[in-house]
Design goal:
Blueprint lengths: L7 E2 L4 E4 L11 E4 L9 E2 L2 E2 L1 E3 L4 E2 L2 E2 L5 E2 L8 H17 L4 E5 L14 H19 L8 E7 H9 L8 E7 L10 E2 L12 E5 L6 H13 L6 E5 L4 H4 L9 H9 L4 E10 L5 E6 L2
Parallel strand pairs: 10-15, 10-16, 11-12, 11-14, 14-15
Antiparallel strand pairs: 1-7, 2-3, 2-6, 4-5, 8-9, 12-13, 16-17
């Protein structure tokens, strides 16, 4: 059943947006905020419609043709993965080629850094396998290549979360003697790809700044102008979008906001905000 056919029950205000905060989209968005501050009438520069007291909502289309969609915030990771799967399927039906999935892994109300880095990555690894097994039919498993940040991570995955899996496991970078200083060995991505590959899943490419540059290379050399698809899974791309890495020191990384990111469809997104006026931004393609 499509997300557009789903009726949902919500206990908190939902904001329905016509776009994603970082760039214009051709699909509707859903933003979910905790009931702390309802004085704001605009969010990220776009008009919003507030709905405070309701139980069940379904799809509505206004005169402009926009679709308003209310979706229940996931209660657990099983429900989250099902929502992400359906949203990804809709994006694939629309022939989206480059997609992003982003959500917290240390708990649905957590923010990056709440959990220890290695634990968060391990959590993402386990969720990636579950997601791939939901999304990819068994006959296509060997045509799905999952790229982890580095070669050591692939070895760990084969012995743990991906033991016995049919997916192809690969890496973006190789460790070097100077890894503690952020220097890794570059991998030529064209050499990592096989002709039978149909989908690439890129796992949490945020530990080293070079990883997203390699992701762009992978897209340019092996995805663009082909029928292949690529999904970036928990890449913490907001760090780049919001200028966490100063463009003066990281010009190539900052350039991604003009080269790679405009081609990307954010199909599933949860971002928590802490503090006095904290809340949750929740979006899915639908």
């Amino acid at each position: 059943m499509s997300l557009l056919e789903t009726s949902t029950i919500s206990r908190v205000p939902i904001i329905i947006s016509t776009g994603f905060p970082y760039q214009d989209r051709d699909r509707s968005s859903v933003c979910y905020l905790k009931p702390r501050d309802f004085s704001c009438k605009r969010f990220c520069g776009r008009e919003m419609r507030f709905s405070h007291d309701f139980t069940t909502k379904s799809v509505a289309r206004d005169e402009s043709g926009r679709v308003g969609l209310d979706v229940m915030f996931p209660r657990d990771y099983s429900e989250l993965l099902e929502q992400a799967k359906l949203a990804t399927e809709l994006a694939l039906e629309d022939n989206k080629q480059l997609m992003e999935i982003e959500f917290p892994t240390a708990g649905l109300e957590s923010v990056p850094g709440d959990g220890e880095g290695g634990i968060e990555m391990t959590g993402s690894m386990e969720l990636i396998r579950e997601f791939c097994e939901c999304l990819v039919i068994p006959e296509k498993a060997t045509r799905t290549r999952i790229f982890f940040p580095e070669a050591n991570e692939v070895d760990f995955a084969r012995k743990s979360s991906f033991e016995g899996a049919l997916f192809k496991l690969d890496y973006l970078t190789k460790p070097s003697f100077f890894q503690d200083f952020g220097i890794v060995s570059k991998v030529k991505m064209a050499d990592r790809v096989r002709a039978e590959d149909e989908m690439f899943m890129v796992a949490y490419p945020y530990f080293n700044v070079n990883e997203m540059l390699v992701v762009e290379e992978l897209y340019n050399e092996a995805v663009m102008n082909t029928s292949r698809k690529m999904i970036i899974f928990n890449g913490e791309l907001d760090r780049i979008r919001t200028g966490y890495y100063p463009s003066f020191f990281y010009p190539k990384l900052a350039a991604l906001t003009k080269t790679l990111f405009p081609k990307m469809e954010t199909v599933y997104y949860i971002h928590n905000f802490k503090g006095r006026n904290g809340g949750v931004l929740f979006r899915l393609a639908g």
